Amino acid sequence: MASQNGADAAFAIELKGISKAFGPVQANRDINIAVPQGTIHGIIGENGAGKSTLMSILYGFYKADAGQIFVNGQLTLIPDSQSAIRAGIGMVFQHFKLVQNFTVLENIILGVEDGPLLNTSLAKARKELERLARDYDLEVDPDALIEDLSVGHQQRVEILKALYRQAEILILDEPTGVLTPDEADHLFRILKGLKEQGKTVILITHKLREIMEATDNVSVMRRGTMVATVKTDETSPEALAELMVGRKVLLEVDKGTAKPGDVVLKVEDLRVRDEHKVERLKGVSFDIRAGEILGIAGVAGNGQTELLEALGGMIRATGKITMNGQDLPLQGKGSDGQSRRRAGIAHVPEDRHHHGLILDFTAWENIAFGYFNDPDYQKNALFMDNAAIKADTAQKMEKFDVRPPIPTLAAKSFSGGNQQKIVVAREMEQSPALLLIGQPTRGVDIGAIEFIHNQIIALRDAGAAVLLVSVELDEIMSLSDRIAVMFDGKLMGFRDPETTNERELGLLMAGMTGKEEAA
Amino acid sequence: MDRLPRWADLALVPFVSLTLAAIISALVIIAIGQDPWEAITVMVQGSVMNAYGWGYTLYYATSFIFTGLAVTVAFHAGLFNIGGEGQAQLGGLGVALACLFIPWPHWSLALIGAALGAALFGAAWAAIPAYLQAKRGSHIVITTIMFNYIAGSLMIYLLVDVLRPPGKMDPATASFPPEMHLPSFNEIPGLNAIFDTGVPANVTFFIALIMAVVVWALLWRTRLGYQIRAFGKSEPAARYAGINPTRIIMIAMLISGGMAGLMAINNVMGEAERLLGNSASGAGFIGIAVALMGRNHPVGVVLAAILFGFLFQGGAELGLWTKIPIELRTVVQGLVILFTGALDMMVRMLLVKIFALFRSNRMEAA
Questions:
Q1: By CB neighbour count within 10 A (0-12 exposed, 13-18 middle, 19+ buried), where does B207 fall?
Q2: Does the complex come out with an ipTM higher than 0.85?
Q3: Which of A84, A313, B159, B163 is spaced 20 to 30 Å from A364 by Cα?
Q4: Same fold, A11-245 and A263-360+412-509
Q5: Chain A residue closest to B244 (CA)?
Q6: A388 in contact with B at a CB cutoff of 8 Å?
């Protein structure tokens, strides 16, 4: 680490003693970091460790309570994002800031037009874009509308926007959260290209694999402090995980063999049409036994969401589902979420913000969500027993280590991992016969991932059937007792996790298969 | 954004908003060449400094509590019910029919019957927009506004052509039989010690307070209220939980319409004692402002309703005792709505900055 006095021009960015508090929460505490020019520097830490706050200070969104910023050795004040851009800092946000019905070119020049008439700016941008595409492998059709582009391409436009504004230092905040594995690989190639051209890249992520793959150096943050900065090739995922969490973390799931019992859920020829009458689920059949985890792998958007929602009673479907020998209606009366819960189906939805939780509700109100008819939660025929729900919530929070364990806190005030734990606690503690669980660890930090995985295994060992849907292939491979791959609304076949490999599953996920298997 | 302490959120923000509205109102009064100090004196003296003034202030407040609660219930289901005006007019019809055509032996029974009629008619008037929203996706704001006009026209037709007693010139029903007379504050034993002259405030005020408690219990203590609030916060999440959207929209709007309809027992049965044209006289719209200012909480609604009752009564006094035209009361109300409703965020953000400044100063001093 650089000395506290002079700054070194070899560092693109040097932060000294940065602190920032939000009310009583110290988001950043005396942060020192030096990013050498022409490197890819990773910043890793759990959700809420202070990574995003630090970068927001660097980009002028927040004013630090204390500390100094040096850009290329120069003490620089960054009161707003315009100053950051002038200092050569560009930022690519997790949620893109693009105008959907503008073309790529129009988005690029937005805010940096040369004059009232757009023609000259557009022509200049077109030329510059061609050069950037050539130099950095950043090809995008300049005349395409943003809304027609894939997420990966939209992200490229964000990078191009920064480069067009002559950014020498590029900050990317959780860039792969929205990308498919292929798109992520392409992104890392682009970043390496940028590095070779002398640009500096700061990559914020909580995924260890990306850090190991793409960075030269990595800084680890934990609870607002910078705990270490190391060379990437001198460390290991295990060491980084331990630094992040502050204790040893098991990256591999430790589970015994499954002891499958009777068939719990039988699904036959399940079909779902969306509101445009397009068939999203094209005749899916499978069954799950008690004490078994069936993992559904696949690229997002191939019908997994519809599968979960149809089984969970959220959307209408056709076909036949049988639960412990009993038919469950797929539309009309008895096909809603309440009936499903009565049948013993618990559902951890893929999207906890839109479905699993009501963010404005308190934790205890969320614990009753979906189970508000539970007799234990009623005081009498008229009133709910709020005190009983709060007590129950406190118990579940303790068991699932939700932090902070305050039942009256609004759901939105919890970190992503703790929000997910609230949903998982609610659904698993119902001791369901069947658990539907979608993207169980999306946006969840490492410590919580380990915990949630163990809970899923424990539920299986207690005799529940589990339907696991995840776009994380690692998760599917390590948790499932059987794997089915979904592509274009159909199951491409079943595989045994012991004998299959990522390559085979990857091909199935892309819709390529030699033999069709009967389900 | 940093957050304000709870007391500032609940008390300081409305206080600052009201002060700003008062300052602008004073400027308007100066601009028309009158004395703002005299105006505020007349307003306060005529509305809250004596029993007579309170008798009017609370009478107006009673109506506003009902319409404010109506907006509140719908709001928690994510529905903006602008149709309180029409629902209250139909509630008036329910009251009139109950009072004119059923020979009640005593006012207390008449009150129950009229309240049922009022709630039923108000709810029925809300049911159609609710059904269109739930089943056809027609936006409730548009349909409820339209239903206000339809209600107005329907009432004119009924009063002119159907309910007007033969030989009478004005579009109104016959007066209700005297047995239907609801006790005013000056007729209630105990209260008449304070209210020694005739005032329009009547027993309905207590029904309004009871309804505020009922709405609170409904929303925060029952399964139905839980489902209404969950649906109002997030429809996709409600679908996940198995909450039936059609059912919630219908129930919430029926309760809302019924609440607005109930207002009629105050003005139609308690005061006019017959049904006149335009019976709600704007109280349905004031209810929107009341709910907005009361933060869609029954306690806030009661307080805001009393404030608007004060503005109504004080404004009327202005027209009576000063050269300031009574229309100024509309200006003052408009400013109060503007500052407490539309510009609420402006005041809030200003206070957030001031508080943040305070905090950082304190931290530096420490």
A1: buried
A2: yes
A3: A313
A4: yes
A5: A336
A6: no
